[in-house]
Structures are given as structure tokens and as C-alpha cells.
Amino acid sequence: MQNARIVPAYAAGFLCATFTLSQLFNFEMRVPNVIASAWLPVAVAQNGTIDLSWHAPKKTWINDLNRVLNDTGTNGFQFNGSVLRDGVPYGTYNWCNMPHVRREEYPKASDEYTLQYVEVIHRHHKRTPYASNTFPKEAYRWDCNDQGLFYYGQPLNPTGNASANSYWSVFTSDTNPFVPSGFNGTCQFPQITRQGLDDSFQHGKDLYGVYHDLLNFLPSSLTTNLTYRVTNNVITSQVAGMLIAGMYPPPPPSPSSSNPQTSTLSNPNTPVPRHPPSTPPTP
Description:
The chain is mostly helical and 283 residues long. The protein has helices at residues 2-25, 31-47, 65-70, 194-214, 234-247, and strands spanning 137-141, 165-169, 182-184, 262-266.
């Protein structure tokens, strides 16, 4: 009985709404037709049946346990290296290296369409593990002497004195009893590796090749229409710096100006042993 009372209320509500619209827009509609239209969805909902039976999904190499346990191979996916084997088309899933959007494979739309907005969201490139994900003591070193992590500030708006291009040079003494946990070496955990930096640079070149050279969408120089955003995780800034340089290479230093000074800084997070002085200090 409760449902029977609700149905006329729905019909009355639909009738009032239709009458209001007919007054606003001068619709010509007869009342009997309105009532019939109001009752029609209710009748369909009451008389319709819903199939609640279970339907087995289509069997594939992913969910068929017989194939999962007995098949061999990786179904075309690659897990054992960053470089694709000969004959493997670009874009094949590679666990070690993310494929880029490239001019060679990009399917260009017809000229009747106009590209108005592009947003690229991707994670970092190759990196070292987080310190929290390592064992308390790893069996080997992990060194990153083939790159530098630059950390410095510089006055802006208005500009002021220029800062030296300084980067961290990690050093841990072999005699230090307070060695950090995890990997010993010169890397930060995490940081983008040299291969990750090179891949980020190539990623920027590929993006520019598609959205500037092929589609004429990106400007030829950096403008306010182009925005790069990073998180508070430093590895996203490391990727962004290389990606931007791949898209818009910085100009070479002018011959008339002196080359920027580059120096190294000891990593302040590396424990440094304190040895007693060889001679007593003078009071």
C-alpha cells in the first residue's frame, strides 16, 4: 500500500512541473497525456525484471588459472631490460622503461579537429629505492658518482646576487661506527638515477616533437601558457628539470660572461665521526 500511495504523488509532481514549464515556454500539452506520461515510467519499473544471475567473465591468459599455472612466456610483455629486443614494436609494455609519446607512432587526427588543451601526468623515471624500503644493512654499495644533485637558493623578484651551482658530494668514512642503514654509497634514497635523468631528457624531446613539431600546439619558447607542477618529493623536481631542458634547451653561456662556479657540498645528512684533537686545545 505504501508504494501505491507514492505513485500518485510522483504523477502529481510530474504534472505540476510540466504545467509550470508549459506556462513558461508556452507548451501545448493536454492534461490526460501528461498523466499517462507520468504513469508510464512507474509501470515499466514495476513490471520490468532485472537479471541478477552471475555471468562468468571471458577467459584470458590473465584470469584462466590453467593458463596462469601452465603457460610459459610473458605474452609479449618485457620485464628483463630497458631496451626492447629486435623486432619488438615500440610501445610494448616494458616494466623497466616507460614508453614515450613519440612523433613516429602518434596517430594524428584529421584537420577538422583543433587541439585546445593537453595535460601530461606521469610518475618518476628510474630511481633508487626509498631508505624505508631497504634492509637495515645491504650487502653492496650503490654509488651515484655520475651525477650531481644541486640544492641552492637564489634571489628573485627583484634579482640579486647569483648563487654558485653547488651539489652534494656524499662521503661516509669507513671508520665511522654510525653508518646509515640500508645501502652504503654516494646515492640518496630516493633519487633519480643517471639513466632516469637521461630518459627524462629524452621524454621532454619526444613531447616537444609531437606537440610542437607535429601538431604546432606548443610555443617555440617558454610562456605562461605552459605550466610544470611537481610535488614536495625532490625526485619529481629532478625529473622536471631534465624534462624541461629536453623540451626547451637552456641557452649556452655567453662567451663574454664568466662560467658559473660549480662546487661540491658535503651531504649534511651523512653522519661524520668526531675525532679527538691530536693536541690539547690552548685554554
